[in-house]
Design goal:
This protein has 9 helices and 8 strands. The chain is globular, with a radius of gyration of 17 Å. Bound molecules: adenosine-5'-diphosphate (ADP) and magnesium ion (MG).
Length: 254
């Protein structure tokens, strides 16, 4: 139903972290999610291969012995991980899974390529994660250009929102974080109110697979950030995708 691409031409900006966080949050609220691994490095698949066993499921995941990249789609707890979605497979895969799932989330590689253009052209929303650095801002500008090219070639608007990542989580935000937000606003770009602040719990997720859990000490902040990220995302897609709003409402009621 809804298709969201997570992209920034700059590597390390927080794309995979954002995609995983949203996949687990929406799946945790009852949506069926297809997580498309559009990065040849297969980081989303790598995460899935750790996460599934950590939640008590031993899938017969076949991985490439050299790269550890998952070779076939797997489903667990509402998330279907679709590996190796390269530019040749992008359109067919997005179309196929948007028919069978509530939400398709595409984790892209950090470069402006054909895959990115095709994914953006099929998306209801493009999320652009940006760290507080000049390099990430440059990547953001390049990514927005790619969104606009995809919008022109598909003759429609493609909503795109910037998400600040790895920002300081102290009450007095650093000047550089405020400066980055202002730069985005000055460019007239949409920006999420919530930030995926720099949290150990999000780094830990890459080791043990488990997303931040509000009952674990020290993980409350990260867990709350992710819930708000999910609700803001559902609100952006409002109207078009009522099941997402229902999921967001359910999370608020908890
Ligand atoms: N909000 C965050 N807090 C802590 N670490 C983060 C956060 N976002 C990303 N990271 C870490 O930064 C690195 C790059 O993030 P990743 O999501 O893999 O970026 P990308 O997919 O854009 O290359 C990873 O090691 C990840 O664990
Ligand atoms: Mg990545």
């Amino acid at each position: 139903m809804a298709v969201i691409a997570v992209g920034n031409t700059k590597g390390g900006s927080g794309k995979t972290t954002t995609a995983i966080a949203l996949a687990t949050a929406f799946a945790g609220n009852g949506l069926s999610v297809a997580l498309l691994d559009g990065d040849p490095d297969g980081r989303a698949g790598e995460w899935f291969a750790v996460w599934a066993p950590a939640t008590g499921y031993e899938p017969s995941i076949t991985t490439d012995p050299k790269t550890e990249v998952i070779l076939h789609p797997h489903t667990h707890k509402g998330i279907t991980l679709v590996p190796n979605v390269d530019e040749d497979a992008m359109l067919d895969t997005v179309e196929q899974y948007s028919e069978s799932h509530d939400l398709v989330l595409i984790d892209l590689q950090g470069s402006a390529n054909q895959s990115m253009l095709l994914a953006f052209g099929h998306s209801d929303l493009v999320i652009i994660p940006v760290q507080s650095s000049r390099f990430d801002l440059k990547g953001m500008v390049k990514t927005v250009k790619t969104v606009r090219s995809a919008a022109r070639s598909t003759r429609r608007e493609i909503p795109h929102w910037v998400l600040l990542t790895r920002t300081s989580t102290t009450i007095n935000q650093t000047r550089v974080d405020r400066y980055t937000r202002q730069q985005v606003i000055d460019l007239n770009l949409n920006i999420y109110t919530v930030e995926l602040g720099h949290r150990t719990a999000l780094q830990k997720m890459t080791h043990d697979g488990l997303p931040p859990n509000p009952v674990n000490k020290g993980e409350e902040g990260a867990a709350e950030n992710i819930q708000v990220l999910m609700r803001e995302t559902a609100a952006i897609l409002q109207g078009k995708h009522p099941s997402m709003l229902a999921a967001a409402a359910a999370s608020l009621a908890e």
